[in-house]
């Protein structure tokens, strides 16, 4: 029996060093996928299947097995394949054939079993087109010779292995193969034109099926999230772990946020700059306290070309140490205050925890504002002004509610004076998420970096120096993750119109095999005309006039991508001088008279934006529970709620709350599944305190520890 | 005699490892500065001076020398200093005192000589406030104990050395000291108020003098360029060599370019994305030919926190290898074409040649567009469309003329099909500069990365695959350097209004010591009101109402910063219901009736923008010489001209031209001074060919080699 080890050895002889994993023995792909998903892997991989089929052969003839190497997701129809290859009755090979010809078992079939075949000329080798079309560096998972082991090789490496066998293979497009079948309950035998239409419809239906989100939001949230992001074409995975590609749909959200926020701060007098991404060791190390938290995650450049750098250089994790020596240089007088700059850039934090698109990535885009003021009062005023803008980003652009408040001493910025935050909420997991922070740094950094001005109130003959008061504030692409998680549904992404790359899509409907070309063209032209009108009045519209896809396919296509409004135009609509609209967020259908197209669509988009916010806010509001006794705390958390309760504002109590609200995690649970059992963090001391039962000093007690309560505090499990 | 080595040893004992340089012996700071400027140094440094003065002492008393440690640029007045310290007649110490007390010579005085002083209590130690105020990591140059050696220590290290002496020093603001002197030919002894005004005026005049550009554009272009950039507050130097800080004035130029260009390409259907900055080794190495040019300049991240990465990761020098594997994944069908994305980001190229702000930096901001098309025709069409946009960036935003054309085979993008370019010109050096490139990559990359679609023209039963045709196009912050170099003058920066952060500044004038507070306030209010009106109609305006600076100081302040229009308002203007305007570009003065303020200012700004372009174009046009015989080629180059001449389009001829037009460089010349003698490059084959003497195939000969000329080619020395 060819062993796993033997296969690894033969791969190594081809200079292929595959990564391997051990796991429970699995009997089929479903179990295998489940087993793999519990294990940490460095990068995404494609699960494969290797099928060994045997066509009907005369008793006297030698068997000519068919080996099919395919992606697990590809539907492989044995009969259709046999037909294509001119072989009859292809059925799965039995255990004897597997053992005799391939030296393997049913549970452990892989392409590498081909190394064991004595006479390869008797084998038909078939490889899935979808697999071959993957980029060379994509990773494939195989089960070579053992049901409790998996080996990972890249597409290129597999090709190299197959090439080493000197065995030609047939590249089969299983999708096309399936499409060649007549549709179930389909059109009667018809003219070639009808057949062509039918083929298109099936291809479309098949594509529709492949495109759908395969996981339900409430059932498998992590996989749902991944699929929504990739299938909507917001994001793609990348071969450097923790880094992701922001495709136009995602990048557009960031652009809209950028335009809004940059416009607002420019109006306030803040000026944009750009500092280098590199920080010298010496400068970074200067601020040991502040940088302590960041140090383990700093990425270091040590080489350029083939030479070592004299001194390693860091990539900024945040720019305080980069900028503040220059604040000291540039700020000479109180007349230089307030001094306010901002930059849009990316930062790098080489985290070792499981990365998650948008929420935890090693490189992310953000803005960081850094300002200096003469007085604490001036600084504080700006802290709140900026926080209000952050709130608007969420409420007005992303249609998401946030709670504004002050962070506890434990949770605030290390080295700062106080931190204000906007806290978001993900209902599906019942977890809060810090959405942006505006810090008052006090004078800590100006004392570290010696940023001083002459006190204008002091005598010019005996001038006193004062250290400036500083703020820093930042908002990142994490915002996009929150938006997807809250608004998305089982059909896919749902975008608020204000940040949608495409706000409305015009789709021609009602064309049948009976429609003449002239009528079809008229319909297409009418659709294009509608789109032109809408574009003119500022709506981001597209018209989907692709001739080879059915309306159903198109509906699916644009729904997955979260397009807020679908505008259908069919012969009936044309007759009635109207368009039929469908909202992505609710599915509601309504009509708009053609002459009111512009105002009707603009109104609809505004309504959608507003309604999405209202719904999200209602869900969030019902998820904040007032807790008056400790017994109710953990059950509320486990019920996916956030808690608002009187609190003593003591760090020891905060630590205690976290411990007492953590549950023992289930073994083998991935971090995100484990999240429901992590301890609660303090989220913020909300600016808006409850008025029905105000805190009475000395009377109201902290729900967690019984000491005097200072104010209401928001608690919850958090990202 | 204390030797250089002894001093180095004593510094090392303080854990200070200074960098040192040897050079010709120098007798004074001027010679020292000249000697240093010929040597390569890693980063900018401040030249210092250490003065040893001796006040008049009674013959019987011990000498109490004054040691002054200052920046070379600080004006140190010995008499004023003596007055401040209460010492009489401070003069430079003679050679005997230098030898006896400090064990040093006149040519080699440095603070470190203090280590040799037997009794420090007899020394007055004075340190320049300007020096102390520098950021701790700024580098200072000293001459310790040897006139042919320089040692470099940071401000922090100097402070540490002084602290080790346990000798207190006096922090003296020499600027204020100088200001305390009555102005030359100034006001007669007056009331305290007048004295205060006089003091302000002198301070202002002094500040004005300090602020000015100390080098003439035509005399010392490199130093002029550095000073314009730093004194205008466009840019600051940074402690990682080759990296610079873009301050708001510079960043605003890039913002305007971004807004214009992104708007235009979005209209064309290009979508913005963001790919990770990191590239895995494996992917980068894939394209050995393309990447060959970039490999020596790629920066590698090898560590995160304190652990080594499993595999080093590169920072993108350009994103072809990052993106194109995804093109292969995402482009499945000809219906996906044209596929057009763009990103705004920074790239890193760790060059080893002398860096220069904007023109050659290790990190720079740019946009890179990458597109795929079904046909060469479609691709080519876009190449020219983009090049036209690049031209507009220069002509319409930056008021700069460029020549559009095609690069020679030698100069085109490695691995591409053909490259088009916009070529700029810097009159002061007579050098061309590549301003932006739009490449057609052909099918080279789609073949490398397997980016294929089904040919829609082929039979669906026997589909043929075709490789897509690709383009890539990029424009960077180099644009800003060209703008500064062409438009700037001896007063400083000159900004085209379309990219100016501040387009107009309102300055109150005519206030004297006789003006009542009420009248002064009225004037300030009137200025603020003008600014408000202008802001309302979209002009980027500021009003400079700072009370402690003279109009002259303010004029200087805003002129250095390149502010296109100055609007003066004085009592006479108020009387005549007008404002007086002064153009930054020409200095021309004119008035605008107050009721026509908005239209008058907007018109003025448009005129300035237009005139700046016209002047730059005229200068550029007269700098392109038609050459008909080789003897005229090099003289024209040396006369700071570009050459347009019939050319054979052969690479060997191009190489030959480069050799023949290089001159032996003068020894010791820095690279930029050496530039005037470098060989000429081919710049482009201009789209606009001369019509007066068109090339006659087979008749017109190449001016360089005599073979048949194919077309006119533009040649020149280039950045």
UniProtKB/TrEMBL annotation, chains A, B:
<dbReference type="GO" id="GO:0004827">
    <property type="term" value="F:proline-tRNA ligase activity"/>
</dbReference>
<keyword id="KW-0547">Nucleotide-binding</keyword>
<comment type="similarity">
    <text>Belongs to the class-II aminoacyl-tRNA synthetase family.</text>
</comment>
<dbReference type="InterPro" id="IPR002314">
    <property type="entry name" value="aa-tRNA-synt_IIb"/>
</dbReference>
<feature type="region of interest" description="Disordered">
    <location>
        <begin position="658"/>
        <end position="680"/>
    </location>
</feature>
<dbReference type="GO" id="GO:0017101">
    <property type="term" value="C:aminoacyl-tRNA synthetase multienzyme complex"/>
</dbReference>
<dbReference type="InterPro" id="IPR007214">
    <property type="entry name" value="YbaK/aa-tRNA-synth-assoc-dom"/>
</dbReference>
<dbReference type="InterPro" id="IPR004499">
    <property type="entry name" value="Pro-tRNA-ligase_IIa_arc-type"/>
</dbReference>
<dbReference type="GO" id="GO:0005524">
    <property type="term" value="F:ATP binding"/>
</dbReference>
<dbReference type="InterPro" id="IPR033721">
    <property type="entry name" value="ProRS_core_arch_euk"/>
</dbReference>
<dbReference type="InterPro" id="IPR036754">
    <property type="entry name" value="YbaK/aa-tRNA-synt-asso_dom_sf"/>
</dbReference>
<dbReference type="InterPro" id="IPR016061">
    <property type="entry name" value="Pro-tRNA_ligase_II_C"/>
</dbReference>
<dbReference type="GO" id="GO:0002161">
    <property type="term" value="F:aminoacyl-tRNA deacylase activity"/>
</dbReference>
<keyword id="KW-0436">Ligase</keyword>
<dbReference type="GO" id="GO:0006433">
    <property type="term" value="P:prolyl-tRNA aminoacylation"/>
</dbReference>
<dbReference type="InterPro" id="IPR006195">
    <property type="entry name" value="aa-tRNA-synth_II"/>
</dbReference>
<dbReference type="Pfam" id="PF04073">
    <property type="entry name" value="tRNA_edit"/>
</dbReference>
<keyword id="KW-0648">Protein biosynthesis</keyword>
<feature type="domain" description="Aminoacyl-transfer RNA synthetases class-II family profile">
    <location>
        <begin position="242"/>
        <end position="496"/>
    </location>
</feature>
<dbReference type="InterPro" id="IPR045864">
    <property type="entry name" value="aa-tRNA-synth_II/BPL/LPL"/>
</dbReference>
<dbReference type="InterPro" id="IPR017449">
    <property type="entry name" value="Pro-tRNA_synth_II"/>
</dbReference>
<dbReference type="InterPro" id="IPR004154">
    <property type="entry name" value="Anticodon-bd"/>
</dbReference>
<dbReference type="InterPro" id="IPR036621">
    <property type="entry name" value="Anticodon-bd_dom_sf"/>
</dbReference>
<dbReference type="GO" id="GO:0005737">
    <property type="term" value="C:cytoplasm"/>
</dbReference>
<dbReference type="Pfam" id="PF00587">
    <property type="entry name" value="tRNA-synt_2b"/>
</dbReference>
<keyword id="KW-0030">Aminoacyl-tRNA synthetase</keyword>
<protein>
    <recommendedName>
        <fullName>proline--tRNA ligase</fullName>
        <ecNumber>6.1.1.15</ecNumber>
    </recommendedName>
</protein>
<dbReference type="InterPro" id="IPR002316">
    <property type="entry name" value="Pro-tRNA-ligase_IIa"/>
</dbReference>
<dbReference type="Pfam" id="PF09180">
    <property type="entry name" value="ProRS-C_1"/>
</dbReference>
<keyword id="KW-0067">ATP-binding</keyword>
<dbReference type="Pfam" id="PF03129">
    <property type="entry name" value="HGTP_anticodon"/>
</dbReference>
